[in-house]
Design goal:
The structure is a homohexamer of 115-residue chains. Chain A has 115 residues and is mainly α. The first copy, chain A, contains 6 helices and no strands. Chains in contact: A-B, A-C, A-D, A-E, A-F, B-C, B-D, B-E, B-F, C-D, C-E, C-F, D-E, D-F, E-F. Chains B and C meet through helix 1, helix 2 and helix 3 of B and helix 5 and helix 6 of C.
C-alpha cells in the first residue's frame, strides 16, 4: 500500500486547514467550529461519535476523512473488533465501491498499531 | 408532514422484501442475510450499530433506510438526545442536502413516541 | 407497493419531457438527443445497453430511470434471470442503500409481466 | 406532473423546519443559521448565490432543495433564460440521472410563473 | 497520464485484499465472496457482467474499480468499440464529472493493449 | 500540500482529453462539445457559469473539475471574496466531506495568484 506516513498526513492536513482559515470568512470559520463540536462528549460518547464519523466517511468514500476518524478512534481506545464491525456496516450499506477505501482504512489501522 | 403511518410503512417494506426474495437467486439471498447479520450484537452493541446505520443512511439520503434505523433505534432504547447527536453528525458530514431527510426523520421519531 | 400504473408513469414522463423541451435551449436539446443515441444498436446490443443503463440507475438510486430501463429491457426480451443478475451486480456494487429501489424495481417487473 | 401546490409545499417545509428546531441542540441550530447566512448578499449577489444553490441541488438530486432555490431565484428576478442556463450546467455536470429532477424543476417554474 | 504500471496496480490491490481478509470477520469474508460470485457466468455472460460492473464503477467514479473491470473486460475479449459504448452510457448517465475517470480508463485500456 | 504544478496539471489534462478523443465515437465527441458550450456567455455571464461549475464540482467532490473551474474563474477575474462565497455555498450544501477538497481548492487558488 502506497500510503504517506501518519506524520506526513497530519502535516498536510494541518497545512490545508490553515489555508482554509486564512481564506475563510466568518460563516466558514463557524462551520468548521461546529464540525469539531459535533464530535464532543454528549449523550453519546466520543468513541461512538468517531465511529459514526468513520462509517459516514466510508459510505461517502472520502479517504482523508476515513484516516482522520480511524486515528481518532484509535486514540479513543476502539479495538480491532469494534473497528471491523463499524467498517462492516459501511461495507454492507455502501457496497463493493467501498472496498478500495477499506483496503486503505485497514492499512492506516496497521500504521497506528505499529506506532 | 405527509408521512404514511408506521404500520403502512412496515407493510409496504415487508411486501417489498417478499418481492425481492421471490425474484432473488442464491447470492442475492445471501447478501440480504449478511445485511441482517451486520447489525447483530458483537464487539459493538446493537444500539451503536443501529446508529451507525442511521448516520450512513442520512448522509446517503435514503428515507426508507432512515425510517428503518430510527424505528430500530427506538426499539433499542435510544433517547431523543442520542438520536439528535447521531443526526447532527450526519448533518455536519453530509451538509444541508440532508435537511429534507432530517425533517422526515424527526417526524418519524414523533410517530414512534406517540405510539 | 404503492406504485402508479405503468400508463400513468408513462404519461407523467412524457409530459415532463415536453416541459423540458419547451424550456430547453439548443444545447439542452442536443444533450437529450445524445441520451437517446447512446442506447442505439452498435457494437453492443440494445439489450446489453439497457442493462448497463439499468445497473447505472440502480447504483445511483433513481427510481424513474430504473423504471424506464426495466420497461425497455422488457421490450428487448430480457428474461427474469437476466434481470435478476443485472440487479445483483447493482446491489453488490451499490450496497444495501439500493434495496428500497430493488423493491420497486421488482414491483415494476411484475407490472410489466402482468400486462 | 403530480406536484403539490406551492402553498402546500411551503407549509410542509415550514412544519418540518419547526420539527427540526424543536428537536435540535445548540450546534444543529447554529448550522441551520449558517445555512441561511451563506445565501446573503456579499461579494456575490443573492441571485448568483441562489443559482449556485440550485445547481448544487440539481447535481445532488434533491427535489425539495431544487424547489426551494427555484422559488428563491424567482423572487430574485431570475429570468427563464438564466434559469435554463443554470439548469444546463447541472445537466452537463450531473448527467441524465438529473433529468427526472429537471422535469419537476421546470414544472415548479411554471407554477411560479402562473401565480 | 501518471498511472502506475498494471503490475504495480495488481500487487497493491492484492496486498490490500490480504489486509482486508486478515482483519475481516465472517460476514465481511462472505460479502467479499458474493462480490466475486456476482460476476460469474449465468443467464448473462461474464463479459456482459464485467461491462455492467464497469459502467456502475464509472458513474460512481471509483478509479480502482474501473481499472479492475477494464482489465477483466480485456481478458474477456471486449473490443475497443464495445468498451467505448459502455463508457458512453456511463458518461451520458453520470455527466461530465465522469470525464477525469474516462481519461484514466482509456489510459488503462492503452496499457492493456500495449502488453 | 502535495499538488502538481499548474503546468503539469494542464499537460496531464490535455493528454487525457486527447486520449478520450482518440477513442471516442461520434456521440462522445458531441457530448464533449456540449460540455464546452454550456459555459459560454449567454443570459448568464461566463464568470457566473464558472462559479456554478465550481460549486457543482465541489459538492460532487471532483478535484480535477474543481481545479479546472478555479483556473477558469481566475481567468474571468473572480476575486478571492467571490471565490470564498461560492466555496461556502458548496461547503454548506455538501457538508464536511467537502473539506479535503476545499483544502486543495484554496491551494490551487494560491498557485494561481503566485503566478
Amino acid at each position: 500500500m502506497d500510503l504517506s506516513s501518519l506524520e506526513q498526513w497530519e502535516n498536510e492536513r494541518s497545512e490545508g486547514n490553515d489555508l482554509i482559515l486564512k481564506n475563510a470568512g466568518l460563516q466558514m470559520k463557524r462551520l468548521m467550529n461546529i464540525d469539531t463540536a459535533a464530535y464532543r462528549e454528549g449523550a453519546l460518547s466520543v468513541k461512538t461519535k468517531e465511529l459514526l464519523g468513520l462509517t459516514a466517511s466510508l459510505v461517502l468514500r472520502c479517504d482523508d476523512c476515513i484516516t482522520y476518524h480511524i486515528r481518532r478512534s484509535h486514540e479513543e481506545g476502539v479495538t480491532s473488533e469494534e473497528l471491523e464491525e463499524a467498517i462492516l456496516v459501511g461495507y454492507v450499506v455502501g457496497g463493493s465501491i467501498v472496498v478500495p477505501h477499506m483496503r486503505r482504512a485497514f492499512a492506516r489501522w496497521e500504521q497506528l498499531q505499529a506506532e
